[in-house]
Amino acid sequence: MSVHDEVGFEKYHGTGNDFLVVDANEYVPDRAAFATRHCDRADGVGADGVLFLALEDRFDPPRVVMTLVQPDGSTAAMCGNGARVAAEWAMERTGAADVMIDTQAGTRHARREGDDVAIEMGEPRFEPEVVPLADEYDEPMLGEDLEGYAVTALNTGVPHAVAFVDDVDAVDVDAVAPPIRSHDAFPEGANVTFASRREDGGFDQRTYERGVEGETASCGTGAVAIAAAARVRDRIAADVVHVSPPGGDLVVSFPEDGAATLTGPVAHEFDGEAAATVDRVEPQP
């Protein structure tokens, strides 16, 4: 693999879900190759994805066009923690306490709440055609047995398969999640999220992310999926749900309109430079 010119990046994370942030005005000829190379934790900078952000500060509130390219080179329509990172990045540049994030899943309003950043996530959807599920499904998947787990399927900007278990720490995520992630029920694949109820009423979370193809320290859309699935399956009735992935604590709230809001911390780790042009390596026959 050969590399050439350099492009600046900033490294952020939201509860351990980490991203390289690149100003979209910077020229990166092959974003997929860039993400695959530099997200690699062994040979690259290491991250769960690259956020290419275009700031449009002529608007009030300012707007950010967000494109998330994942380590496998695919593009994700939405990422809760990524959108919160994008909001923090824009707030730092504009001084605004509110920003609008344009994602492939729609435009989301973000705001600063104390030391945290909150983002509106839209309404979780369970309809088979929205998740999406395979054509044979004409009813929502609410606790169907897939690979030995009772799975609830929904879309929180991206597809999620949620399984409630007694103890998330007892789950071998890297072993059991891939067959669910690629199950025939999910024609576009799905993120696989495991959740266990705590005595305080919150949930512990672990998520295997589609596109990362591994477990991440946090997943914002997964936290929303847990809270929404728990409400639909009568595990909780609360309008505010605390969810704890390995990387920290998130809060999911449900205003009266049914849309979810995700709130949690964002941290700026460091800045650096990386090769903008990365030659693709074709697989050997």
From TrEMBL:
GO terms for biological process: lysine biosynthetic process via diaminopimelate. Keywords: Amino-acid biosynthesis, Cytoplasm, Isomerase, Lysine biosynthesis. The record marks H160, E209 as: Could be important to modulate the pK values of the two catalytic cysteine residues. GO terms for molecular function: diaminopimelate epimerase activity. Pathway: Amino-acid biosynthesis; L-lysine biosynthesis via DAP pathway; DL-2,6-diaminopimelate from LL-2,6-diaminopimelate: step 1/1. Substrate binds at N17, Q70, G80, N81, N191, E209, R210, G220, T221. The keyword Amino-acid biosynthesis applies. Its EC number is 5.1.1.7. It catalyses: (2S,6S)-2,6-diaminopimelate = meso-2,6-diaminopimelate. Coiled coil: none annotated. The active site is at C79 (proton donor), C219 (proton acceptor). Its main location: cytoplasm. It holds the Pfam family DAP_epimerase. The keyword Protein biosynthesis does not apply. It is found in: Cytoplasm. GO terms for cellular component: cytoplasm. HAMAP family: DAP_epimerase (MF_00197). NCBIfam families: DapF (TIGR00652). Belongs to the diaminopimelate epimerase family. Homodimer. Catalyzes the stereoinversion of LL-2,6-diaminopimelate (L,L-DAP) to meso-diaminopimelate (meso-DAP), a precursor of L-lysine. This is Diaminopimelate epimerase. It comes from Halorubellus litoreus.
